[in-house]
Amino acid sequence: MDKTPPPPPSVVPTVSTCTVCGTSFTPRVSYQLERKADGTQRAYCSLPCKAGASAGAVPCEVCGKRFVVTYAFQARKGRDGGVHHVCSEPCGAALTANRPKPVPFERPYRVAVLNQKGGTGKTTTSINLAAGIADTGGRVLLVDCDPQGNVGVSLGVRGERSLYHVLLDECSVDDAAVPIGESFDVITSDDTLAAAEIKLAQHPARGAVLKRRLEGATRYTHVVVDCGPSLSLINQNALCFVDEVLVPVACDYLSLVGVKQVLKTVKNINQHLGHPLRVGAVLPTFYDGRAKICRDALEALQQHFGELCLPPVRQNTKLKEAPSHKKTIFEHDPSSTGAEDYRVVVRLMLERSRRVAPTEAAAAGPTDLAAPSAAARGRA
Question: Is residue 285 pLDDT above 50, yes or no?
């Protein structure tokens, strides 16, 4: 008996009805369909309908004036998929003019988001850092190196090919990358990545496989790698590919201990694998100014790392809600404190990527890395 499953039915474009104005249309872009937390789905034929339904009177992102969206130009879809509001055409021109242009690199600036302790906000930081850079005009590739696959889950995407296929089947970056926005692509992962690690262990150059596979990703200005909470062979591959490490640190005692483990790992990558790597920044997360432990943890990080310690990301419910809505914080609630804090992170990391060119990182010696600045050591 033939048990071959029947071929899947052909996909026919679905006609939807706009929840706001009642217009019948065929959804073409991601913002036109939105699933609410209660399971209901809403459809929007245009950006003004979406903005008017979701927010009513909204603030202009340039002058701050509150207005009701009436014309199409007043609600613009950004590169991150979010909607940006401007009350007038001059404000729209100012919004476009104020966006930094992408920085031309000989190759992408590569940064890994790593902390060997779990629960420090690595995936949240990776997603919002990548989305924020894309919104400024950069071309960003986000790579999920965690077998839990939380990047794809948080963004609501699942590629036909994952990082497993890139590592072991020599699948190209272009074939594996899933487009999220105009200039924001993602390579997802799943539990097959754990099996990939077993096969990588038998590879003669097991620590540099990912680097060779991703060398072809030259059309991007930035590559962000989300690492799992462990010292695994996959993470070792990621660290041998990137220029710098961004370390999210929850403001508690155990997370401070985890920073020491990261510094030791970076030092080992330099000494034993011969790959120049440095700690680019440390990001305090889950910060609550009312808690003494948070204030003490932030002070300790600032004293030890100096200018490498970024302003903290405050505890924010919207950051926890965003993955359930399959959105970045900038899409879910652009006016929240979480969005404000990650905009600062994006700005500072962009400044660092311009200041520390990849060629400079490649030329750095092991003694330059894994240690705070001299000024920071003097204050520690």
Answer: yes
